[in-house]
Amino acid sequence: MATHLLFDIGGTKIRLAPCKDGVIGDIVTIKNPGSYTDALQEISQALKDFSLEEGFSGGAGGVAGLLNKEKSKLFHAPHLVGWVGKDLKLDLEKITGGSVFLENDSAIVGLGEAHFGAGKDFDIVMYMTVSTGVGGSRIVGGKIDASLSGFEPGHQIIDFSGAVEPRFNVTGTLENFISGSAVSSQLGKSVVFVPSQDPLWDDLAEKTAYGIYNSILHWSPHVVVLGGSMITGSPAIPLDAISAYLREINQIYPELPLIKKATLKDVGGIHGASIYLKQHLS
């Protein structure tokens, strides 16, 4: 059997691993240099460092941003601006020597959590990540749900006043309220330096609950899996506070889906990529 490349391309880090017969090899993490050309060179060098006799034959994985209908190019990528419009699929195929299957990184992590993590054994999984940004996906029957242009729960509007960025008259998206980058920008310092006892974390839990509730209303999942450094890190938005606010907010359903913390940590994207590859090769 051929060896394929699994990848998880984020705005700051790139994770890579070989996969043969469904078995994932050693996962390596490299810094994303930001430049599209430099990143491809780094990936190419990393593949050589794996020192596989037979080389690679294509691969699969996620990238931070929204992809076009053909899943070949990014058309929106706030953290990879210089990558937008580039032939990412084609360029990765040149590097790996075979077909490459691309998807949004949050969708791929959600797929991993649905098969191997906190969403295992649930048919409809809502995954949301709260980190530098806010992303997410809906997994149904073990597959990423169909969509026209992907999922962006972080861009749902939860405030119309423009209070978050009144200088630019920007409406208040969930990401503008709870993401690590937004909160750090508002504080003038990294949110990691705010002690867990600070009331800020309870305020973030309430805002996060509103975003989750909106997505529950749209997606009606069996389980909500929350990941990302703002949820799984330390300090973090407390899960019990999120759940308490959700119970207060709920006016519709007799019961809410389970709320669980993601368990695959930094390698959810690689595990999700292994499933995504298998589904495309089947």
Condensed summary:
The protein is α/β, with parallel strands linked by helices and 282 residues long. It contains 9 helices and 15 strands. Helix 1 (36-49) runs parallel beside helix 2 (88-96), helix 3 (105-116) packs across helix 9 and helix 6 packs across helix 8.
Q: What does the radius of gyration come to?
A: 19 Å
Q: Quickly give the CATH architecture of the largest domain.
A: 2-Layer Sandwich
Number of helices: 9
CATH homologous superfamily of the largest domain? Answer: ATPase, nucleotide binding domain
User: Beta-sheet strand percentage?
Assistant: 15-25%
The percentage helix is: 25-40%
- Average residue pLDDT: 94
Q: Which runs of at least 5 residues are low in confidence (pLDDT < 50)?
A: none
What class do helices, strands and sheet pairing give?
Answer: alpha/beta
CATH class of the largest domain: Alpha Beta
Defining traits:
35% helix, Nucleotidyltransferase, domain 5, 282 residues, globular, alpha/beta
Describe it:
By secondary structure, the chain is α/β, with parallel strands linked by helices. The chain has two domains: 3-104 and 267-281, ATPase, nucleotide binding domain (Nucleotidyltransferase, domain 5, 2-Layer Sandwich), CATH 3.30.420.40; 118-263, ATPase, nucleotide binding domain (Nucleotidyltransferase, domain 5). The chain is 35% helix and 23% strand. The protein contains nine helices and 15 strands. Strands 1, 2, 3, 4, 5 and 8 form a six-stranded mixed sheet that branches. Strands 11-10-9-14-15 form a five-stranded mixed sheet, with helices on both faces. Strands 6-7 form a two-stranded antiparallel sheet. A hairpin with a 3-residue loop joins strand 1 (3-9) and strand 2. It is globular and about 55 Å long. The protein starts with a strand and ends with a helix. The mean pLDDT is 94.
